């Protein structure tokens, strides 16, 4: 039988605020345990939550970016469950009146097609603390620094039909929240987390199959693998006469398998109700207008502008707009140097160096000013593209300083200036011709291939500095006389 | 309506309350009484009335995004029965 996969994702994006959702504690990552947890975060008796305005603004911004209505009187609700890293005994979340209602986002599939994915809702909620299960004399350690950190839970419609589509959607949301500056995109530190609801159904069947929820799959690679392995498991199970149980499953990347975490039937009774400690959040037209003004240029718009304004290929524009740091870097270079050269250098030499050393573009040893200086020297023919790679390498290794003059300093220090003086090139050519009579004869008897040999010799003799176009022209003239 | 003993047990479990088997009937009666009281509200005509999320007719006040709290770990931990390396210790949980 042919099967169809149905996937919906729940993404938890930690909002880039300074303080928590309901308290003035810092949310900075990696601090000493329990040093950023105050009486509210610890749920001491009698404390009251006070809502962070910035979290509301960020959530509204996300809603506007996905074309969703913003809930005018959205409401916080209590989701009740007991766990030691949740001292309140309930999580303050949103239930039937979320801040962001139905929106959508367009993803690009492998074949270049665009697919629209529905975003059911996005709501504000507080994060829980961390349980550390290492052995503390048979007890569990609790760190509440994360308790109360603001999250935006972004829930998709079950619109994805393959693991690849799910990853494309996840990347798109990941890119968007960083563009908006509402999330730092750090999957390793857990500021961007993803759960996947996965089910299968016979192709053509309207009704959804029973789904399993895959928890905390925290890399793009693992999302794809986890979904694929889960789909395989479900199909095998059904084809062997079994049936899928609705449950939470954990992906184990080492064994590449999913396994049941717990049966949630009983525990799943969250008894949501409106939190009496919090009033509805007012969203006014004026507020939304203010937020709309602060919306940055979104990835899709930037992509189109790059293609038109800088005459870039769609491929290059796609790579350059994939994250806002790269897009900004590019624009910074392209404002005073050739845009196509800038695109080539960023997607080529710079990317491969960054990948090799696993650096982000913000940490690149060659900054935008330095690359601008380098490209200007290619443009004015001071150096050839080949020599430019040497200069780039030197700048990467911290030679020449960190401003736009770095390339010039490297070129001077290493004597890499291109030779465009035709007299100088001519004397090199004459010498090469005089020293290689056999090859000259071959060329003149019609063996065109030998021409490359001469070019190579001249370039070698000039240590790569002779202007290649001039060398070609002059060699042609000399050899055919 | 009247709650079954199973429902009473489930409610107690969800609230992590230990109740004695012999008290279940009493709980069932008491809880059913409360539900009955609430049920009477169903008689009210609420057509065209927007449900309120809160009895107070007001909107949430917001706080500026500022870190105002300082580290008070030592003080806050004085109440904890067990701590180690800056962590609160609780009976082992696995899941």
From TrEMBL, chain B:
Function, as annotated: Allows the formation of correctly charged Asn-tRNA(Asn) or Gln-tRNA(Gln) through the transamidation of misacylated Asp-tRNA(Asn) or Glu-tRNA(Gln) in organisms which lack either or both of asparaginyl-tRNA or glutaminyl-tRNA synthetases. The reaction takes place in the presence of glutamine and ATP through an activated phospho-Asp-tRNA(Asn) or phospho-Glu-tRNA(Gln).
Keywords: ATP-binding, Ligase, Nucleotide-binding, Protein biosynthesis, Transferase
Catalytic activity, reaction form: L-aspartyl-tRNA(Asn) + L-glutamine + ATP + H2O = L-asparaginyl-tRNA(Asn) + L-glutamate + ADP + phosphate + 2 H(+); L-glutamyl-tRNA(Gln) + L-glutamine + ATP + H2O = L-glutaminyl-tRNA(Gln) + L-glutamate + ADP + phosphate + H(+)
Record gene name: gatC
Catalytic activity, EC: 6.3.5.-
Organism this protein belongs to: Cocleimonas flava
GO biological process: glutaminyl-tRNAGln biosynthesis via transamidation; regulation of translational fidelity; translation
Family: Belongs to the GatC family.
SUBUNIT field: Heterotrimer of A, B and C subunits.
Highest classification ranks of the organism: Bacteria, Pseudomonadati, Pseudomonadota, Gammaproteobacteria, Thiotrichales
InterPro entries according to UniProt: Asp/Glu-ADT_sf_sub_c, GatC
Protein origin, superkingdom: Bacteria
Protein's recorded name: Aspartyl/glutamyl-tRNA(Asn/Gln) amidotransferase subunit C
């Amino acid at each position: 039988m042919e099967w169809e996969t149905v996937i919906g994702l729940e993404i938890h994006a930690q909002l880039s605020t300074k303080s928590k959702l309901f308290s003035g504690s810092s949310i900075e990552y990696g601090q000493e345990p329990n040093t950023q947890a105050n009486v509210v975060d610890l749920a001491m008796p009698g404390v009251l939550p006070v809502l962070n305005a910035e979290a509301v603004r960020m959530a509204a911004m996300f809603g506007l970016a996905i074309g969703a209505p913003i809930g005018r009187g959205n409401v916080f609700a209590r989701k009740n469950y007991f766990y030691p890293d949740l001292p309140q005994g309930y999580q303050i979340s949103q239930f039937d009146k979320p801040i962001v209602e139905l929106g959508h986002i367009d993803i690009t599939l492998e074949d270049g097609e665009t697919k629209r994915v529905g975003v059911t809702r996005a709501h504000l909620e507080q994060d829980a603390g961390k349980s550390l299960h290492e052995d503390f004399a048979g007890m569990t350690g609790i760190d509440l620094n994360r308790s109360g950190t603001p999250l935006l839970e972004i829930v998709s419609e079950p619109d994805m039909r393959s693991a690849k589509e799910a990853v494309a959607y996840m990347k798109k949301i990941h890119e968007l929240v960083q563009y908006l500056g509402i999330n730092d995109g750090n999957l390793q530190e857990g500021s961007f987390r993803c759960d996947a609801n996965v089910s299968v159904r016979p192709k053509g069947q309207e009704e959804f199959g029973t789904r399993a929820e895959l928890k905390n799959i925290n890399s793009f690679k693992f999302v794809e693998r986890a979904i694929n392995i889960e789909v395989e498991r479900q199909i095998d199970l059904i084809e062997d006469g079994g049936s899928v149980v609705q449950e939470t499953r954990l992906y184990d990347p080492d064994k590449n398998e999913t396994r049941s975490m717990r049966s949630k039937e009983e525990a799943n009774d969250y008894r949501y109700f409106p939190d009496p400690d919090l009033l509805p959040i007012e969203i006014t037209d004026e507020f939304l207008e203010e937020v709309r003004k602060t919306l940055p240029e979104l990835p899709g718009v930037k992509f189109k502008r790059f293609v038109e304004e800088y005459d870039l290929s769609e491929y290059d524009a796609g790579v350059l707009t994939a994250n806002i740091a790269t897009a900004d870097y590019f624009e910074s270079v392209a404002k005073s140097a050739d845009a196509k050269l800038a695109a080539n250098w960023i997607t080529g030499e710079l990317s491969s160096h960054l990948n090799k050393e696993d650096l982000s573009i913000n940490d690149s040893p060659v900054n935008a000013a330095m690359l601008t200086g380098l490209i200007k020297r290619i443009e004015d023919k001071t150096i050839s593209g080949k020599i430019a790679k040497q200069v780039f390498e030197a700048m990467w290794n911290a030679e020449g300083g960190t401003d736009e003059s770095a390339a010039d300093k490297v070129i001077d220090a290493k004597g890499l200036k291109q030779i465009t003086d035709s007299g100088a090139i001519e004397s090199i050519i004459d010498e090469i011709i005089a020293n290689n009579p056999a090859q000259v004869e071959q060329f003149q008897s019609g063996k065109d291939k030998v021409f490359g040999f001469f070019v190579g010799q001249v370039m070698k003799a000039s240590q790569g500095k002779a202007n290649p176009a001039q060398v070609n022209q002059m060699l042609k003239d000399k050899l055919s006389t | 309506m009247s709650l079954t003993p199973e429902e009473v047990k489930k409610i107690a479990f969800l609230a992590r309350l230990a109740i004695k088997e012999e008290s279940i009937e009493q709980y069932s009666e008491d809880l059913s009484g409360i539900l009955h009281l609430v049920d009477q509200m169903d008689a009210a005509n609420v057509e065209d009335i927007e449900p309120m999320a809160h009895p107070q007719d007001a909107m949430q006040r917001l706080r500026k995004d500022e870190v105002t709290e300082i580290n008070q770990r030592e003080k806050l931990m004085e109440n904890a029965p067990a701590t180690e390396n800056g962590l609160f210790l609780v009976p082992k949980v696995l899941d």
